[in-house]
Amino acid sequence: MESESTVTTCYRHPKVESHVRCTRCDRYICPDCMREAAVGHQCVECVKEGARSVRQARTAFGGRIATAPVVTYVLIGLNVLAYLGELVRSSIVDRFEMLGRGLVGPDGGHYMWMADHPSDYHAEGVVAGEWYRLLTGAFLHLPVSEGTFGILHIVMNMLTLWNIGRVVESQLGRVRYLTLYLLSALGGSVLVLLIAPDTPTLGASGAIFGLGAAYYVMARRLGADMGQVNRFMAGLLLWLLISAGLTSWQGHLGGLLAGGVVTLAYAYAPRERHRSLIQASACVALLALLVILTVAKATELAA
Predict the structure, then answer these.
(1) The whole model's pTM is what?
(2) Residues 136, 96 contacting (CB under 8 angstroms)
(3) Under 8 Å between Cβ of 73 and 161
(4) Which structural domains are found in the chain, ordered by start?
(5) What pLDDT sits at residue 192?
(6) What membrane topology is given (predicted)?
(7) Which residue has the higher pLDDT, 238 or 195?
(8) Is the pLDDT score of 4 beyond 90?
């Protein structure tokens, strides 16, 4: 008497005959469900489960390792697009540059603030509720009509962002890096608001100074050769002094301080399961401080 051999089928496709088992769950799988593994084949579900269980590689500061500095590319692209917008419509500068307080006249012109201004003049700037200027000003640069220095403003800033931004992003990961950049830009604008609220400012320099501070703190934390790093910081601080008579030193200093605070939190948070929470809490605390300072100063200016 002859015995019939049992026909085995794929667990996902019951009508397809299969003779290969998944090396992980031992279920039969057809060619469409097979995935190459280190030994044999695995089914689709086991491959997905394995991917979830694999721990993602992290940088020394807790960020996910990225193969390309995508955020740096995007930031440069946004700055260049904003500059092209300025070339098409110069009024973008007056509308979005950082300004604590100012006046718009009946002729559409922009004037210095006066507490007792005529009724046909109206306030503009942060004092008028235009809080977006705290960030939008960091994506604008001197218009080309300012001559050679106007062009050099964006060229030098973007070259610096390209050189140092890629290094910082690779160490921090995209989320931490973007947070650092935006908080540095905001820190620069808030210091401008506190010290020179009547002075219009613009440029990515505050954020870039924050990246410079991050570069220094990270190098110290990693025990890198500080020779080149110290030379870079010396040049950055020298430019901070020189720029006092040319550009907004308040924005530079504010970005430097904010970037330093954020990176200290990144670099020295305990390497335990709550590291990300501690880093995020430090960033939220800095943001809260900047908001409180902005509200207090705007209230004072409006009085």
Answers:
(1) 0.80
(2) yes
(3) no
(4) 1-54 (no CATH), 70-97+126-302 (1.20.1540.10)
(5) 95
(6) Multi-pass membrane protein
(7) 195
(8) no
